[in-house]
Amino acid sequence: MAAHSHHPAHHHPGRTPDRIDWSSRLTMLRQADELDAEAHRVVARRLVRALPDTPTVLDIGCGAGGMAVAFTEALVARGGGTVVLVDATPELLDAATSAARSAAAYGGDTTSAPVRVRPVLADLAAERPVDLAGPAQLVWASNVVHHLPDQRSAVAGLVEAVAPGGWLALAEGGLEGKFLPWDLGVGEPGLQERLAAARAQWFVRMREDTHGSVRMSGGWNTVLADLGLLDVTAFSYLVDHPAPAGQAVRDWAVDRLRWFAEIAGDLLHPADRRTVRQLLDPGDPAYLGSRDDVFLLLANTVHLGRRA
Description:
Layout: H1 26-48, E1 56-60, H2 66-77, E2 81-87, H3 90-105, E3 115-121, H4 129-132, E4 136-142, H5 151-160, E5 162-178, H6 191-209, H7 220-226, E6 230-241, H8 247-264, H9 270-279, E7 296-306
Parallel strand pairs: 1-2, 1-4, 2-3, 4-5
Antiparallel strand pairs: 5-7, 6-7
Helix pairs in contact: 1-2, 1-8, 2-3
Protein name: SAM-dependent methyltransferase
GO molecular function: methyltransferase activity
Domain Methyltransferase type: 58-168
């Protein structure tokens, strides 16, 4: 997971270099997809607008299927196409495929659904996207590349899967998601910032510990341009659920904080670890899951480039 996003990327624990058990994250990924659904729809419509009729969209590291559903809806609205879902975790791929096929069949029976949904179980650390499903008019990869040992080489592999004139959309970077008020009434104020710092340290360590890890210097736009893509640009989209938020946001915040504690807990001061335990304890008055001041605010950035 990138040092900014509220979504983990998606890989199989037994095979992938990042050593994260993604199948256990299905509930959390589904929660995040639910909270991002509106933003995803806007992004998907924007990206498919430039594509030819009945295009193929390749969703790399599809996770629980949030963007897959958005792409399917966007293609249904403009007369059809194909959505190819690629993930290394069977549980996630199954969930994404079911969700996207439901979206394709919505308003009609499955036999006449204008959008075909095709799942591909594959590990990107070992397989080339173009061999799995290319060439596609749009290749989408969200918070996936930074989990692969050689990020630049991974992007080169994505570029190979883009059809001539097609687009690569790489969702990486943005602004770290915030969900806690500055002063929670327990512990020292500013916990969110210290959690973010601990997570950034964890992320550096995760990259260093990834087998065969190669450092990528510079920004994503320079990588896309160096790999020969044209019209390289980017846009960011906001996910904004202000307080008082619904239960879905609170549940997400509890899971999110628990995840922080798991991955970066040892990097926090013992006093902060105590505060985190209080916030995660349903019997504590400070429990995150029943607070009115929990919210969700973040920005994700999508980097775009066109293949000649």
